[in-house]
Amino acid sequence: MRVSHLNWVEISEKNLLRNISVIRNLIGREIKLMVVVKSNAYGHGMIEVATIALKGSVDWLGVNSIEEGIALRDNKIDAPTLILGYVPLTDLEDAVHQNLRLTVYNMETVRALDAIGDRVKKNIPIHVKIETGTNRQGIQGKKLSNLLDFINSSPSLKLEGISTHFANIEDTTDHSFAQFQLNEFKRMEGEFFKNETNLLRHTACTAAVLLFPETYFEMVRAGIGIYGLWPSKQTKVSCSMEGKKIPELKPVLTWKTKIAQLKDVPDDSYISYGCTYRTTRDSKIAVLPVGYYDGYPRAFSNVSYVLVKGRRAPVRGRVCMNIILADVTDIQDVKLEDEVVLLGKQGEEEITADYLAGLGGTINYEIVTSINPSLKRVVTK
Ligand SMILES: Cc1ncc(COP(=O)(O)O)c(C=O)c1O
Question: How many domains does the chain have?
Fold first, then answer.
């Protein structure tokens, strides 16, 4: 299928590399930086982002699935890559062949890897994920001990890293639970890994990078900050409460479309499905070829706006599957195929992912990752 140009995403190479430098300056030279490019690089375009990121001071990439890892390899991106999510037992051998590192927390996975290593005569590096309180992926005390006994007795498996993930570091200014998880991580490290050398320990997401150097260990895993977005308002508030300088992160993504039709709609006319909007004057309406299929949420019906000629144009009526309608009555000289910004800057105006997240009752992560991967990603220098 041809890539649609009805609406598209632009990625600023400059801002991406700048955000990487900001994070690098925070962690210093010694600590490894993993850029998390899972979920199509948070909607930004995985191949485009990984290619640019590796021009900066980046050591590792983080993906969620084997499919994402293989897509990197198919595009000749050979940087060390950790799969953060679950890999089905039937796919483990492909991951080993592609030199994709695995996060493990099940005995079944390490047994299968041991057998693969034996068969293909390869040493397989693994990262064990430790449960410290998120109760998502991760392995707990007793089971961890059995898992490690197995790994240590296997000639094919090599423990390369240990990790955990914080449950409550973004959405709060009370960091006591994060501190509890960090203490748990250290306690379990002392109990189970004290004889290990050269381990890559990694716990920190963006919020931890911004707030707590004690979470850095040998490597950090940064996602949202690399894309120029803050994990939350609370993270920013926490930064200032800690007396830290607020680093300047610059959004990387601009989502655009162009006007597909302009029409004069008389006063007292309904607009779009469900007749939820009725004009209160003679209006000029721009038909825009973007909808909830593309990732523009239906929840934005009648509440969001877009930018046309650097000015705000309110979205009128329901967001449709492939179309939205914007009121451009007050904007002069609007023409067919004029560029429209759905998310990002135009002139002096800006629509931020945080603003849209507020409208949709969600977080900026969901706004950007929801943009349909089939849309073209265009890199701007
Ligand atoms: C395991 C893991 N590490 C790191 C990250 C990156 O988090 P952030 O985008 O907040 O930096 C994520 C994101 O969801 C994750 O799931």
Answer: 2
